[in-house]
Design goal:
single chain; Porin; nine-stranded antiparallel β-sheet
Length: 195
């Protein structure tokens, strides 16, 4: 936890840089609500999305609210903030709260007139109300507080508010900055409504 102040300083600096960049107002779909479910894997994040990944008997259900704060490059890239509440079922049964305040979404693909597509990545703090048992099975130790990041692919019909999302949900020790060890990966799918 001693490096947590350095992380906060880094994130604050990055947000200051973003705010100082030339940008447009927020894109038309400023707010969104998403629901997704994912299954925890016992793999590193790189292997968790590949066929044959080893899954645990724990499922995570998440509700997330997001806001597209700013857009850049003629609305091709947006900066998003998200707040999540998650509940585990199965071999884990605790709550998880994630706040990826630094998220980026790329909106521009050549086929968007046929299938509206975006990819996103975000990072922020994660808090688990209990020490996650699956994290202890796959790591030497873990912590209530870890770093959270996600990678996402979203697909939908053009000019429709609903979209399908595929997401990699990752808790991490941040290369030892917030905990000596710990972390987990979950792969899932869900829906999002933009308004």
């Amino acid at each position: 936890m001693k490096n947590f102040g350095k992380i906060n300083l880094f994130v604050a600096g990055l947000i200051a840089i973003l705010l100082s960049m030339p940008h447009q107002n927020a894109i038309a779909d400023d707010f969104a609500i998403a629901m997704y479910a994912c299954r925890l894997t016992k793999e590193k994040w790189e292997q968790s999305v590949l066929p044959g990944a080893n899954y645990s008997d724990a499922t995570l259900a998440v509700v997330a609210a997001s806001w597209s704060a700013l857009s850049f490059f003629n609305n091709k890239l947006s900066w998003e903030m998200e707040a999540q509440v998650g509940r585990y079922f199965g071999d884990q049964n605790h709550w998880e709260f994630n706040l990826p305040i630094l998220g980026f979404r790329w909106h521009q693909f050549p086929w968007n007139n046929h299938v509206a597509t975006s990819i996103a990545w975000g990072i922020g703090p994660s808090y688990a109300t209990s020490i996650p048992e699956i994290e202890l099975e796959t790591n030497d130790s873990t912590s209530h507080w870890l770093v959270y990041w996600y990678a996402e692919l979203a697909l939908g019909l053009p000019k429709v508010s609903w979209e399908i999302l595929l997401r990699l949900h990752h808790r991490s020790n941040g290369f030892g900055t917030v905990s000596e060890d710990g972390g987990s990966n979950a792969v899932g799918a869900g829906v999002r409504y933009r308004f």
